[in-house]
Design goal:
heterotrimer; A mainly alpha (about 280); B alpha+beta (about 850); C alpha+beta (about 350); B: seven-stranded mixed beta sheet; about 25% helix; C: about 350 residues
Chain lengths: ~280, ~850, ~350
């Protein structure tokens, strides 16, 4: 199977024009396969999660607020706007390719613009108003991941530490979505020059045919990648053990118990004494 | 005819029209059945594509996809490995460019940057790069697709003005203009032309000021001449106009593409091609093939249109010849419409800036003309230079400056096309004249009349203190006769600007002219003992009927009934004489002179034979009615008998002794025919001081629908001053046919290029839109003045070129008569231009970008 | 520019080899189509097809010539005043058919305006309505959107788009070149489409599709479908008709804009009307808003002028086709106020 669709441009040069659309199915199936395998794994093979060391002392724990804010309103708004845009983008991009015909281009680029704007907002927001470092995997994440893997395979290894604000898988997912999302957004921004919009004159000649080919292929690869990523993301969001996290994306906070079970207060410092649901400004 | 020519004026000589009754006692001036007619209407005529030879292979061309690139590698291994594929030809297989000597003894140096037939640095999309010979066409085409070519793309330019801009791209690596002036420019006493070279000319930003408002920029030209006090003329003018206008690039669109077939036999190349000229194509092929003319046999009996694109056919003829050499088999190369569209030649677009000063009576006092030609990538076209010459003759400006530049572009190669430069020059000038008439409130016909050339009118710049002149101009007479037939005044009063619903009528007239003759060629025929006259014709049969018509002069002079005249043409193995090129409207004039010369030679010989046999002096005898008569009665000798006597006498009489001044080609042919009968053979040495021009007055009425921008031509008339009429049906066909060619330029035919891709997007007939029969005017009529040219023995003049600009400009002037000034600033005038201009109140499509 | 490129050689105007099927029944044709799938090409009169084939741009393995299927030819009068035109009926036969001339002159006029007499003798009504666009970039074999690529060459700062769309463009700005198609929409024709699952009737208005919906097709016809007939209902029989085609040449030319109108006028007022313009969009463009606005109005200059303005309210010109706006406006005006011939 070929990955890239090539065509001869007016000068007879072979240039890539887009990905082979069969990749839509490849990635959709990959996403589904992952979730099936994962579900089976969790159901039948996974061991109970164990973490190293004692949790917080009962006293210190009691000092924590009952609800611990995980996502600010701005962050949640961003997430859902982005999610809506992403879903619109995926459906408008790929449904017509698999035979569901409708006039999709305008929805697609409008959603793309919204996504682009929300990404820009997120970058600014995360860089200057949030704890920028909290989402990126660090050394201890890697060491813990190694230990968890060994233990999962039945080998002896010290138990991992509890997570910081974001579990390692969460960070990894974010990392991949950053790569795919940026690729699709940046290439998509260029592609605005090729469709009718009210604010740009159509000009396919701002890049060479070969460069455009890479833009389209990258957009396509990131796009089909996002099919799998979004599938997996939704799957995790709906998993029972992850529901507290999902709810936190709606309501903003997690319970103290969940916090104490999963998170290491040293890695995710939550200021105590501020009981109640008020913003904890901890991240 | 032996009564030589009569001097005449329009008033004395009746017009020849489609309805003129025939004088059966004469050949000249009468309609007749041409010797090719039966074959043409029954389909028996063999065009190049109809020939077959044992074991014939087929060739297909690989064309460049790039407008400009350098080829680094051609890998044909996969193609050659295919069953049925015999050979692949590339530029490396072609003979190198060779110098050649014209029949006037001028050595033309080979152009190392000239067109070669196959290219390693293609200069336009569609330029042939390689040719494949295979057992059939499909195999050859499939093989072409298997050839891998590695290109290095190079910068390109489609628009000549874009190339003249500071920092603009050049069409060739070496530059954007040719470094030497065209050959029409004074060469002086030089007998060798310089080796052409390409250089770069860029204009300044300052020169381009006004471009966005539709003013053509003017900067450094490559050619310039002037006469008179131009500035003074403008000072004294009652009206000065400064107009920019653009004419279209138009492909020749011959119905027969330039297909050719070749094989080698006994060391000789036998080539079956589609060419305008027969005799002159032989040395052209010899030059491209780098071989001796006597080793080339050309067969071209019928040609499906040329219009200047096949004067000596084109260099691509040699591809099947070289493939045939390589494969040791005959090779047929059928040229598809797609191929023809690229290699089939085209007329260059001229963009012109015309500053014209008029007196209160409409007289053109001063003209400052600047033209930029879209030259294409190869040899310099002379349309720029000719446009100035024709305008200087046709409108007789009191003072004039001409400047021009031919800019190289990466577009298909140009060649002359019916009225080369004439069409463009006149099309640049006529709208100015029409506008001046409106501004000065002078009748459109009157402003043409007052500026019309008369008598031996001068043209062009002074060379060595003397301006060239025409042999005779009857432009005014043509205008007057036309005005009468077209009922000009009544029609203008009744219809000009008349509105009926959404439709407006307009009435227009245009003057027109082109060079119409050359001289110095040979006539050759033999009267054999069977009493028949065997005429050797080296004229191409390109649809004008000259190949046969001109010999009617000789037949009438020796008193031969046409039924007993056998014309041999179209095959150079059949002993044809040296002949002018069948192009540029030269033939009717040049070859009637040659026929006259040969007939005079034969008459002299007949008189001598009669005198020898029956006594008396030769001048006591006269030739008529298939016999030689003694004046005042006495012995009579039939031409059949005289032919027998010529063979018996030998020497000059039967062609064993030949005139010293005839061309080597004629010598070879005459030698081969010697001993068959009484030979008439001579070179045309008749004196002629001026240059021969024909003139046409063209009239048109159009009806424009201002709601749709569409218009139709309701009436059209062209009246020609084309000298003595030899064959009315042929001249009528030329006048109307060539008017249609011009009308195509007015109403819709053009190129369309994508400037970014450098490629033509209009490639087929339905896109380039040459006129169809339903575009022809609802009524269309012609007439010829039939005034013999004052210089030369016969007085016939060519008519191929002159009607073309008139056809175009009568329409343009009729449109502006209906709609007023500034509706269009380029031709063709299409419905989008009319609608947009009317909608906006000013011409919006006024930019000067090429090929839009 | 020292980038070196190996290019695939392009050769045009030489038809490559393919397997030719000449079935004598629709079933037979459908089975060949099913057998070859996307490698099959349906050939009607060939006027559109041969360009594609000769230029080696479309390269089917099998060509299914419908020319020998008798049941695909002819015109039949329907009970109730309509007509059924079998898809392979030539344009000439459509033009000359007495029932069509009598009741549906609009269609006869539209068909007669197509191409040239020779082409109308060869071209079929099915082919004329189903023909592909003539966008010269697309026809050059360039990898544009319509050809499955990702670019529109016509709508660029350099694009030559005089003949292109002013309405309904969506990435692709090509237009439908059919002269008979707008008449079909105006007459509320039903297109009978057959495939291996049976026959279905599609409203002419839905038969033609735009690039927003499917950028690679002009009609609903998919691989394996054959247009078998066109049924013109009696709805507009003997109505007041107006057809006008504007093109550069009076013959052998595609429309720049054409218009087909069917009107029922009584008491000087427009009672019912269908108004369809072609050459302005990828499919015949029905002017519903205009139809609504002029219904009940007098069929005069004033109504025509307002209708013309309304017709072009949403039009978006490209660089070289702004003239199509006044042209369309004027044609709509004429179609509204033209007196019945």
């Amino acid at each position: 199977m070929h990955i890239i669709q090539w065509a001869a441009n007016p000068w007879g040069q072979m240039v890539p024009i887009h990905i082979a659309w069969a990749l839509i199915w490849v990635f959709a199936i990959a996403g589904l396969t992952f979730l099936i395998v994962h579900a089976i794994w969790v159901r039948y093979f996974a061991r109970r999660q164990e973490f190293a060391g004692p949790a917080l002392s009962p006293g210190a724990a009691a000092a924590l607020p009952a609800k611990i804010e995980r996502h600010s309103l701005a962050a949640r708004l961003f997430h859902w706007v982005m999610a809506a845009a992403m879903l619109v983008l995926l459906f408008t991009a790929f449904l017509p390719k698999v035979g569901v015909r409708f006039s999709w281009v305008t929805y697609h680029w409008v959603a793309g613009l919204i996504l682009l704007a929300s990404i820009v907002f997120h970058i600014v927001h995360a860089s200057f108003f949030q704890n920028f470092g909290s989402i990126w995997p660090d050394k201890s994440d890697l060491a813990d991941a190694r230990n968890r893997t060994l233990r999962a395979l039945g080998r002896s290894a010290p138990p991992p530490r509890r997570f910081g604000k974001y579990p390692f898988e969460n960070k990894l997912y974010h990392l991949i979505i950053v790569i795919a999302g940026l690729a699709v957004a940046v290439t998509g921004a260029f592609m605005l020059f090729r469709v009718e919009t009210p604010f740009l004159a159509r000009n396919p000649y701002i890049l060479s045919d070969m460069t455009w080919g890479f833009v389209y292929v990258l957009h396509g690869l990131a796009g089909v990648g996002l099919i799998a990523l979004v599938t997996v993301h939704i799957y995790f969001a709906l998993r029972p053990e992850k529901l507290p996290i999902t709810k936190s994306m709606i309501f903003g906070s997690i319970s103290r118990d969940h916090f104490l079970e999963q998170h290491d207060p040293q890695r995710w410092v939550v200021s105590s004494g501020n009981a109640g649901a008020g913003p904890s400004r901890a991240d | 005819m032996p009564d030589s020519k009569q001097e005449g004026t329009a008033a004395q000589v009746p017009l020849v029209t489609a309805d003129t009754p025939a004088d059966k006692s004469k050949l000249v001036g009468q309609n007749y059945v041409t010797p090719d007619l039966f074959a043409k209407v029954t389909g028996q005529a063999k065009y190049a594509e109809d020939f077959r030879a044992e074991g014939m292979l087929f060739a297909k061309l690989l064309l460049s996809p790039y407008p400009h690139a350098r080829i680094l590698e051609i890998d044909a291994s996969q193609a050659l490995a295919m069953p049925g594929v015999r050979a692949v030809l590339t530029m490396k297989d072609l003979p190198p460019p060779a110098d050649y000597m014209t029949d006037l003894g001028v050595l033309i140096k080979a152009n190392p940057l000239g067109e070669r037939g196959l290219a390693m640095e293609p200069l336009y999309q569609g330029e042939p790069i390689a040719a494949v010979a295979a057992v059939d066409e499909l195999t050859a085409a499939d093989a072409v697709e298997k050839i891998r070519v590695t290109y290095e793309p190079l910068p390109f330019v489609i628009d000549p003005l874009a190339s003249l801009r500071p920092g603009g791209p050049n069409a060739r690596v070496e530059g954007n203009v040719w470094g030497v002036l065209g050959p029409e420019a004074p060469v002086g006493a030089k007998r060798t032309t310089p080796v052409p070279e390409v250089r770069e000319i860029k204009w300044t930003e300052e020169d381009f000021r006004g471009y966005d408002e539709g003013k053509m920029p003017t900067g450094t030209p490559t050619g310039e001449w002037s006469y008179g006090d131009v500035e003074g003329g403008f000072k004294n003018a009652a009206l000065v106009l400064d107009e920019s206008f653009q004419t279209p690039n138009t492909s020749h669109e011959c119905l027969e593409t330039r297909t050719s077939m070749a094989y080698w036999q006994g060391g000789k190349l036998h080539l079956f091609g589609s060419t305008q000229s027969t005799s002159q194509t032989v040395p052209a092929i010899a030059r491209w093939m780098n071989m001796k003319p006597e080793d080339v046999v050309l067969v071209s009996e019928y040609t499906g249109g040329g219009y200047g694109s096949k004067v000596t056919s084109s260099v691509h003829l040699i591809i099947p010849a070289m493939l045939s050499k390589k494969c040791h088999a005959p090779v047929m190369m059928r040229i598809t419409r797609e191929d023809e569209n690229y290699i089939g030649r085209a007329r260059p677009s001229l963009t012109g800036r015309m500053k014209a000063g008029f007196g209160p009576d409409g007289r053109l006092l001063a003209l400052d003309m600047f033209v930029v030609a879209d030259n294409g990538p190869y040899d310099e076209v002379h349309d720029t230079y000719i446009s100035g010459q024709i305008v200087s003759l046709l409108y007789q400006p009191v003072a004039m400056r001409w400047r021009g530049i031919s800019v190289l572009t990466n577009t298909p190669p140009r060649s002359p096309q019916s009225s080369p430069g004439g069409l463009q020059g006149i099309t640049l000038m006529e709208p100015v004249l029409a506008k001046a008439a409106r501004r000065l409130k002078i009748d459109l016909l009157a402003i043409h009349r007052i500026n019309a050339p008369e008598g031996k009118a001068p043209l062009g710049p002074a060379v060595d203190g003397k301006r060239a002149h025409a042999t005779g101009c009857f432009m005014k007479e043509a205008l007057d006769q036309g005005a009468r037939r077209f009922q000009w005044e009544e029609r203008r009063k009744a219809n000009s600007g008349k509105r009926n619903g959404s439709k407006i009528r307009g009435v227009g007239v245009s003057s027109s002219s082109f060079k119409s003759g050359s001289k110095g060629f040979d006539g050759l025929f033999v009267i054999q003992p069977d009493g028949k006259m065997y005429v050797q014709s080296g004229i191409g049969n390109l649809g004008t009927e000259d190949f046969s018509d001109v010999h009617r002069v000789a037949a009438e002079m020796v008193g031969m009934p046409w039924e007993k005249v056998v014309v041999t043409w179209g095959d150079t193995s059949k002993h044809l004489p040296w002949t002018c090129i069948s192009g540029g409207s030269q033939t009717a004039h040049a070859m009637t002179r040659a026929a006259y010369a040969a007939a005079m030679d034969a008459i002299g010989k007949l008189q001598q034979i009669a005198a020898k046999d029956h006594g008396g002096r030769p001048e006591n005898y006269e030739v008529r009615n298939e016999r030689v008569y003694r004046q005042g009665g006495g012995p009579v000798m039939t031409l059949a008998h005289a032919a027998q006597r010529a063979i018996a006498l030998g020497g000059v009489y039967d062609g064993h002794e030949l005139p010293k001044d005839i061309n080597p080609m004629t010598v070879r042919s005459a030698k081969a025919l010697a001993g068959r009968g009484l030979m008439g053979v001579a070179r045309d040495n008749y004196r002629q001081d001026g240059t021969v021009f024909s003139f046409v007055a063209s009239f048109a009425e159009v009806e424009i629908d201002v709601e749709t921008g569409t218009y139709k031509i309701v009436d059209f008339l062209a009246v020609a001053d084309a000298g003595r009429v030899i064959h009315p049906a042929a001249i009528g066909g030329q006048i109307l046919g060539r008017s249609m060619l011009g009308i195509g330029h007015a109403i819709g035919q053009k190129w369309v290029f994508d400037q970014h891709l450098g490629l033509p997007v209009a490639r087929r007939f339905y896109q380039t839109k040459p006129p169809t029969i339903l575009d022809a005017p609802a009524r269309m009529d012609w007439a010829a003045l039939n005034i013999p040219d004052p210089e030369g023995p016969v007085g016939a003049k060519g008519i191929g070129e002159p009607p073309v600009p008139g056809g175009c400009c009568a329409i343009l002037n009729a449109i502006s008569d209906a709609l007023g000034d500034d509706i269009f600033r380029r031709a063709p005038v299409t419905l989008d231009m009319i609608l947009t201009s009317l909608e906006n109140g000013h011409p919006v499509i006024s930019g000067l970008a090429a090929d839009i | 520019m020292a980038i070196v490129r190996e290019s695939s050689a392009i050769i045009r105007d030489v038809m490559p080899a393919f397997e030719l099927f000449q079935p004598t029944s629709i079933e037979e044709a459908l089975s060949v189509l099913a057998q070859y799938g996307t490698d099959a090409w349906v050939l009607a009169g060939g006027i559109d097809s041969f360009d594609w084939l000769k230029d080696r741009i479309k390269r089917p393995k099998a060509v299914v010539d419908l020319g020998r299927i008798r049941e695909l030819r002819g015109v039949r009068e329907l009970a109730g005043g309509g007509v059924e035109i079998r898809a392979m009926t030539t344009l000439t036969d459509v033009v000359l058919h007495p029932a069509i001339r009598k009741s549906f002159k609009l269609l006869a006029d539209a068909a007669e305006s197509a191409a040239s007499p020779q082409i109308r003798n060869q071209g079929t009504i099915g082919g004329n309505v189903s023909q592909d666009t003539r966008c010269w970039y697309y026809r050059s074999g360039f990898p544009c959107y319509r050809a499955g690529g990702n670019i529109c060459y016509a709508d660029t700062p350099y694009g030559m788009n005089r003949e292109h769309a002013i309405l309904g463009a969506a990435r692709c700005v090509a237009v439908s070149p059919s002269d008979s198609a707008p008449a079909m929409v105006a007459l509320e024709a039903k297109m009978l489409v057959r495939n291996s699952n049976g026959e279905r009737a599609v409203n002419a208005e839905d038969y033609f599709i735009g690039p927003g919906f499917d950028i690679t097709r002009m009609t609903v016809l998919k691989q394996g479908d054959i247009l078998t007939a066109i049924r013109i209902p009696s709805a507009w029989a003997n109505a007041s008709f107006y057809f006008e085609k504007i093109s550069d040449r009076p013959v052998w030319d595609f429309p720049i804009v054409n218009i087909a109108a069917a009107k029922v006028i009584s008491g000087g007022k427009i009672r019912r009307i269908r108004l369809v313009v072609n050459g302005v969009a990828a499919h015949p463009w029905r002017l519903r808003q205009v139809e609504e606005a002029v219904t009940g109005q007098p069929a005069d200059e004033q109504t025509g002028a307002r209708a013309g303005e309304l017709a072009i309210a949403d039009a978006v010109p490209l660089q070289h086709n702004g003239f199509k706006l006044p042209l369309m406006r004027n044609l709509v005006k004429r179609a509204i106020c033209a007196t019945p011939a």
